[in-house]
């Protein structure tokens, strides 16, 4: 913010002075990242090829600078991973072969961590059922 201040005294003749005040507001890391599922394609067939998109997610942080920069990951380790497309948009994709007879459903958490100190974390759970293919 830039403020222009002028002051005038009550003397005869009145004297005045002026100055410019520059107020810089620093961002505080007070917003955790937010994760939203914008598209979900489930169940995933067990013969889905590597790279198949399971979900599209939107991730953002209302803070600015490093407080608003977000890194995303999938937890726990699973056959799914994240691919960043455009700024703030990620695809949850199949990274390795699925086997419904071994695991019929996954519960993965997409975690978004900002660059603040201390870092804040937002997350979203995604349930991924696997369908049987004969």
Explain what you see:
This protein has one domain: Immunoglobulin-like. The chain is 0% helix and 51% strand. The protein is built from no helices and ten strands. The strands form three sheets. The chain has a four-stranded antiparallel beta sheet, with no helix packed on it. β1 and β2 form a beta hairpin. The protein is rod-shaped. The mean pLDDT is 95. Keywords: Calcium, Glycoprotein, Membrane, Repeat, Transmembrane, Transmembrane helix. It is a single-pass membrane protein.
Question: In summary, what is this structure?
Answer:
The chain is mainly β. It has strands at residues 2-8, 16-22, 34-40, 44-45, 53-60, 70-75, 80-84, 89-94, 105-114, 121-131.
Properties at a glance:
134 residues, mainly beta, Immunoglobulin-like, four-stranded antiparallel sheet, rod-shaped, repeat, transmembrane, Cadherin-like_sf
Annotation, overall tally of beta strands: 10
Order of helices and strands: EEEEEEEEEE
Largest sheet: 4 strands, antiparallel
CATH fold topology? Immunoglobulin-like
What overall geometry do the principal axes of the alpha carbons give? Answer: rod-shaped
Radius of gyration of CA atoms, rounded to a whole number: 25 Å
- Count of structural domains: 1
Largest sheet: spatial strand order: 3-5-8-7
CATH homologous superfamily identity: Cadherins
Structural class: mainly beta
Low-confidence segments:
none
**How many helix segments?**
0
The whole-number mean of residue pLDDT values reads: 95
Quaternary status of these chains?
single chain
- Estimate percent helicity: under 10%
> DSSP strand (E) fraction?
over 45%
Query: What would CATH call the class?
Result: Mainly Beta
Distance between the termini: 66 Å
Query: Architecture, CATH level 2?
Result: Sandwich
